[in-house]
Every structure is written in C-alpha cells, then in structure tokens.
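Task card 7
Instruction: Convert sequence to structure tokens.
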Amino acid sequence: MTDKSQSLNLDEPAGVLVKTTCVDYPGLVAGSFFLKGCNLRCPYCYNTDLVLGTGRADGSKTEGLNTVRELFDLMERRQGILKGIVISGGEALLNPYTPLIIRKARELGYKVKLDTNGTLPQELKFFLENKELRPDFIAMDIKTSPARYAETLCPAFSKFKNNSGYWEKLVKETASLVAELPSDCREWRTVLVPGLVTKEDIKNMAGLLPEDASWQFAQFMNKDCLDPSYNEIYPYTDQEAKELVEYAQSLIPGAALR
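Output:
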C-alpha cells in the first residue's frame, strides 16, 4: 500500500460521519467515520451505498455523504470532549483518506480505532509497521468459516471468486496480525447471520483466535440488505443466539453478545 493522502480533496463526499458514539470504541466516547468502498459483498450488509463506493445499486449518485473536512471540523470543535476516532467502512484499509485521518487525529490527541473486514493483511501490516499511522485499537470482522468466504462474501467480479484457499489464507494472516497486539488493543466481531454463522462455523472461526480474544457478537438485522433476499431471512431467536454465543464462550471465554 502507498500513502496518497497528501493530494486528496477534503471536500469530496467520502463517508458517513457519526458525531458521537459510546459503543464503537470500547471504553471511550468517540466520533466515527464510515468510509466508502469495500472489497467484499457481504449479502447481509446494510451499508449498501458505502460498499458500492460511488453510488447506489441502480447507478445513481450517492447523496448525503460527509466530507473529511466535516470530520476534521468536528474533531477540532470537540477536542477534549471526544477521546477517540473510529475509522470504519466499507473497508478503511482500502481508502486513501485513512492515513490522512489518522495523522489529524494524532495531531489533536485522539486515540484511533480502525475497523477492518479481515481480508487485507498486507495493508494492515503497512499501518502496524508505521509508527505514525499505527492505530491504538484494531477491530477485525470474522464473518463465517474462512473457507466459506469465496462462496458467500466474494464479489462476482473478483478473479478469486471460486478460490476458497485464497480467502482463507488472507483471513488467517490478518487474524494472526491482530492476535499479536496487546489484548486490550484488539477485538473480533461476528454478526449472527442464519445460514452463515452456525455452530460449526463458530468452531472454525474460534480456531483462528487467541484464547484471550474479545469476540463480540451482534444480531443480524434483516433490513436494507445488499442482497434483497436476506431481507426475508429471520434473525436467530434470542434463545438461539444465546446458545450460539454460549458455545463460542466454551471455546473463547471472552465471547459475548453485544
């Protein structure tokens, strides 16, 4: 990955700004910026405009996105009130604005959390090895069994569409990088999507995580999904979700339903 942030336009629509959050950065009141663009097409994703990058599924231009300048204005106004900045997506590791945002956050004294879908180990390594850009906290999504990424999450246009070994290798490499961080600087996240996250998938995912992992589960929402057929899938019942998370806890004690 190369850093092209110096030539970027701060006034271009770039993402969605959440001015205050108490849940996106563990232990800190923060602001979040969800950048557009992603290398996956998770069928249950509800951030459709962000994932598609520059427009909606019908090709029309995305409206209502915030600029990086708006983010910077917020960071300057709320300096000393907000303690952290969360850079999410889409996929933040693919977005050229990410280095610029991290530098600004550092300049203003913010802690930086970066969210990633877990399929870009070389890009993550670039940030982790750069003292100036290294995030204070990493959250990695782990979406299903790594061997299933090719069939369920890979976009149709990818040349690796049917290469399960390729995606499995990427997820394993990223999980290993995140596992090397101190335990209070990392977490893994999984959405409980029926059909994608079963007891067997939880077993396979747990095999990638360190025993001291914080593994945060969330219920699936069948609304505004990237694949409209997922709007017809009912979420797990509270009891079913509880049983799956309890099974996860038997493998990784730090698993929890958020």
